């Protein structure tokens, strides 16, 4: 099962209600507070996030099983425990789209 969660977009502007994620050195907003489910991401220069994520938008999905849903996709950022307590991973589809899979 796959359920839409949000769209992640990179910005260079400080956004209201950002929170800092020390692990990846990125400022993020809560997409659940945005009327169109947008998550704004503002990266520090020395962020460890791969350039492909910094320079692309992504679509995030809740999934029951990241391993099953990511079969055949290129791994960009292997699944890890997020600050919110769930597991997330970033992948690229065959046609180049970036997807974030979130397993609760």
Tell me about the biggest sheet?
A: 8 strands, mixed
Helicity range: under 10%
Shape: globular
The low-pLDDT segments are none
- Record field, number of beta strands: 8
Radius of gyration: 13 Å
* Structural class assignment: mainly beta
**Helix/strand order:** EEEEHEHEEE
Beta-strand share of residues: over 45%
**How far apart are the first and last residues' alpha carbons, in Å?**
12 Å
Discrete helix count: 2
CATH class: Alpha Beta
Indicate the mean pLDDT: 95
CATH architecture: Roll
Tally of structural domains: 1
The CATH superfamily appears as: 2,3-Dihydroxybiphenyl 1,2-Dioxygenase, domain 1
Task: Please give the order of strands in the largest beta sheet.
Answer: 2-3-4-1-5-8-7-6
What does this molecule look like?
Helix content is 8%, strand content 45%. The chain is globular and about 35 Å long. The protein is mainly β and 104 residues long. It has two helices and eight strands.
Q: Which features would summarize this protein structure in a list?
A:
mainly beta, eight-stranded mixed β-sheet, 2,3-Dihydroxybiphenyl 1,2-Dioxygenase, domain 1, about 100 residues, about 45% strand, 2 helices, 8 strands
Give a topology summary.
Elements: E1 2-10, E2 19-21, E3 26-28, E4 38-43, H1 51-54, E5 58-63, H2 66-69, E6 74-81, E7 87-92, E8 98-103
Parallel strand pairs: 1-4, 5-8
Antiparallel strand pairs: 1-5, 2-3, 3-4, 6-7, 7-8
